[in-house]
Amino acid sequence: MSWFSVSRFGAVLYKEFIQMRRDRMTFAMMIGIPILQLVMFGYIINSDPHHLPTLIEMADESPVARAVLSGMETSDYFKFEGIVTSAEEGDQALRDGTANFVVVIPPNFERDIVRGLSPKLLVSADASDPTAVGTAVGALSGIIDTAVKQTFQGPLAPVAGQPPPFSVVVHKQFNPASKTSLNIVPGLIAVILAMTMVLITAIAIVRETERGTMETLIATPVRPLEVMLGKILPYVVIGYIQTVVFLIAGKLLFGVPFLGSGLAFFIGFNLYIVVNLALGFLISTLVRTQMQAMQASFMTILPTILLSGFMFPYAGMPGWAQVIGSAIPATHFLRIVRKVMLKGAHLADITGDLRAIAIIGVVIMLISMLRYRQTLD
Amino acid sequence: MSTTPADSVSDRSEPAIVVKGLTKIYNGKKVVNEVDMSVPKGAIYGFIGPNGSGKTTTIRMMCALLTPDGGEGHTLGYDIHKDARAIKENVGYMTQKFSLYGDLTIRENLDFMARMYRVKNRKKVVDETLRTLGLEGRGKQLAGTLSGGWKQRLALAACMQHKPALLLLDEPTAGVDPKARRDFWDEIRQLSKQGVTVLVSTHYMDEAVQCDYIAYIAYGKKLIDGPATEIPHQVGLTTWRVSGPDLVQLEEELRADPRVEQVARFGAQLHVSSTDSAGLDAVVAEKSGENDARKWEKKEAELEEVFIYLMATAADNFGVNGGPSA
In terms of domains, do B267 and B206 share one? Predict the structure, then answer.
């Protein structure tokens, strides 16, 4: 049997296993990625998110109003986080993302019910992420019906029949048609920027080391800052071009508006790019080859897509996943982009997100500085 | 072939490189172990040693790419601990691997390096470099497409554009064909004539003999250094050369003899060496009586025999003392 030698085949097989085991990075990826994906897809993806932050504007504190609210809260979809006293305050909360819903109980709610005037209960929903609020909105009428049936007993029993004693008006703000593309396109800017900036920076720096050109470079009088800035700036330009293309294409193809402050967007955008470049730089100090740089970048991109709220509603993720998600720069930039583009947010509305990105950035830079010093020798 | 080093030795001017007790530790292992060296101005200084002996690390410390863990030194009068930038500006360093940009053209590479050193009249200098290289017509060719020999000449030219007084070449001819190696050495000698000090590491013996001075390093320890012509004398090795029939048989017999320290085959000859000159002569007297067809000839040991001898001794003493000192 000279056409196939089992021992030669075995030798190749054995060699391949040895090499696979020696390349720790790849090995870790092979084991790590499936586990990561399993956990993320299994636990985090939740298109039926509960406990959505909700604010109440209470112009009527009657037992009926209380019954409706407690019905909503026991449904687990809504989590009441406070009271607002004016419509402006409610709008602001929706715009800066502190609440997904604002429930408005109109004045004389109970009295109007008793009089058969069928008052309107207003629910303002932040529909910029239609998936996040969609199921809660859908469940709303059922929840209220049940609450009403339990309340209107005894003397109030007659009004509980047909027609319904009051109507629920859902006001889908920022994205009335619940178009998913309005949510996805701004989110894509955050994800695509993260992918290119991290990957390209990591690879561009590792490539110099791998090809041996870094040694020549270091042997010249060039200063590290000159190298870093010179290497990174071209990719910042790429990031600018990508974003402009995205904004234009998003507008032309999907009708995604840009309602908010250009300045707020510009500041958030630049901060985000800097943080991603720093992350790419950090990766480049941790790996030795371009292949490893690619794998490591991929490791950061996966959570960026899955945990940032880009693909699946942040509010639907379990608490621990939200903690991880809040450490990802894209999570915060995503919010900035959606707020500015869809909700017309201004600089004041995004300060919290800016601060979060800045903190992440400082931490990444500190770590990479420590790493860089060690790799000089 | 080598110039007369005696002149340079008497030269009172400060050496181009002088290091004392230079030490570098990686993972608890002394890859460079208290190396003392002095490279006279204007000399071609050969830095010889097997692979992994610490040559590259030593050179990197001399041009301030690495911080020594111990020892001190001056390169071109600048402190290797403190004056890294001044050293980098005045030294030309050529790395072992071709490390210009393969995806830039020849001209772009030269231009880039000229800008790194802030060379004045850049355009003129780059043109001049291309002309000297004989690559005027090929400035737009990608550097990655050059042959191994040309890549090395390009790299050499690139690190000479800022007219450094000292050139550090780390195995510049490794993996380059013999013709290209000869051309490369012609260029090194040209530069030396113009007054440039050249420190070149190599493990080719035919290159070692072209140097004015030599330092031999193994396992991170400098075993010997001095003017090339004096090295064999310093070691005190006596060598007999023998040619004739049945050398394989003779080689075995000689190896078994404790008075013979080294038997090495060079073409059709055996080179039989020992530091025990009298003992060796006695062995030769015995053996030459056995077979008249063999021709025996006593000669001064050459560098190659000396280095083989040093290497063998160093290996024996690794971790203890590091072999004979100069």
Answer: no
Within a domain: residue B204?
yes
> Do residues B66 and B9 both lie within one domain?
yes
Average pLDDT, chain A: 85
Residues 109-148 on B with a CB inside 8 Å of A are: 113, 116-118
What are A141-156's pLDDT values in tens digits?
788 777 777 776 666 6
How large is the ipTM? 0.74
A201 pLDDT higher than 60: yes
What pLDDT is recorded for position A352? 92
Residue B268 and residue B158 share a domain: no
Is A52-173 a CATH 3.40.50.1820 domain?
no
Residue range(s) defining the domain that contains residue B31: 5-232
| Mean pLDDT lowest among A91-95, B272-276, B312-316 | B312-316
Which of B216, B232, B248 marks a domain boundary?
B232
pLDDT above 80: residue B126: yes
Assigned domain for B36 exists: yes
Task: Reduce the secondary structure of chain A to three states and give it as a string.
Answer: CCCCCHHHHHHHHHHHHHHHHHCHHHHHHHHHHHHHHHHHHHHHCCCCCCCEEEEEEECCCCHHHHHHHHHHHHCCCEEEEEEECCHHHHHHHHHHCCCCEEEEECCCHHHHHHCCCCCEEEEEEECCCHHHHHHHHHHHHHHHHHHHHHHCCHHHHHHHCCCCCCEEEEEEECCCCCCHHHHHHHHHHHHHHHHHHHHHHHHHHHHHHHHCHHHHHHHCCCCHHHHHHHHHHHHHHHHHHHHHHHHHHHHHHHCCCCCCCHHHHHHHHHHHHHHHHHHHHHHHHHCCCHHHHHHHHHHHHHHHHHCCCCCCCHHHCCHHHHHHHHCCHHHHHHHHHHHHHHHCCCHHHHHHHHHHHHHHHHHHHHHHHHHHHHHHC
Do B153 and B103 have their domain in common?
yes
The tally of domains found in chain B comes to 2
Identify whether residues B296 and B200 lie together within a single domain. Answer: no
Alpha-carbon gap: A296 to the closest alpha carbon of chain B (Å): 25
Residue B8 pLDDT exceeds 60:
no
Does residue B321 lie within any of the structural domains? no
pLDDT at position A321 is 85
In this complex, the residue of B67, B88, B118 whose CB is nearest that of residue A219 is B88
Could you read off the pLDDT of B190-241 as tens digits, one per residue?
A: 999 999 999 999 888 888 888 999 999 988 889 889 998 888 888 888 899 9
- From chain B, pick out residues whose CB is under 8 angstroms from the CB of A216: 93, 95, 99-100, 113, 159
Q: Which of A213, A216, A377 sits opposite B66 (nearest CB)?
A: A377
**Nearest-by-CA chain B residue for A217:** B116
Q: Which CATH number do you get for residue B49?
A: 3.40.50.300
